[in-house]
């Protein structure tokens, strides 16, 4: 796929990007090269290949889901002006 200078200007306008007129042909050439690479990648036969989350065969190192902090609710709410059932009470903002 070949990207023309007009295409670059249209894309730049849609993306609200300022493009220097002297570099438009360079951008068009680079975008055409990228599109050519994408076309080459589309031609690769991938039938029967399972998608991977990572190129290396590694398992996620997950830590156990355990509480590591002690419950400090009483001490943290000691200075709050209004508390009810362990919740902070705040003034109403919306009517």
Q: Got a strand count?
A: 2
Series of H and E elements: HHHEE
Main sheet overview: 2 strands, antiparallel
Structural class: mainly alpha
Alpha carbon gyration radius = 29 Å
What strand line-up does the widest sheet have?
1-2
Cα(first) to Cα(last) distance is 58 Å
Shape: elongated
CATH class of the domain at 5-42: Mainly Alpha
**How many DSSP H or I helices?**
3
CATH topology of the domain at 5-42: Histone, subunit A
- Portion of residues in beta strands equals under 5%
Helix content: 25-40%
- Arithmetic mean pLDDT: 91
CATH architecture of the domain at 5-42: Orthogonal Bundle
Low-confidence stretches: none
Summarize the structure.
The chain is mainly α. It contains 3 helices and 2 strands.
What characteristics describe this protein?
95 residues; mainly alpha; Histone, subunit A; two-stranded antiparallel sheet; 2 strands
Please provide a written account of the structure.
- The protein has 95 residues and is mostly helical.
- It has a domain of 38 residues: Histone, subunit A, CATH 1.10.20.
- The chain is 35% helix and 4% strand.
- The protein has a two-stranded antiparallel sheet.
- A hairpin with a 2-residue loop joins strand 1 and strand 2.
- Helix 1 crosses helix 2.
- The longest helix has 19 residues.
- The protein is elongated, with a radius of gyration of 29 Å.
- The termini are far apart.
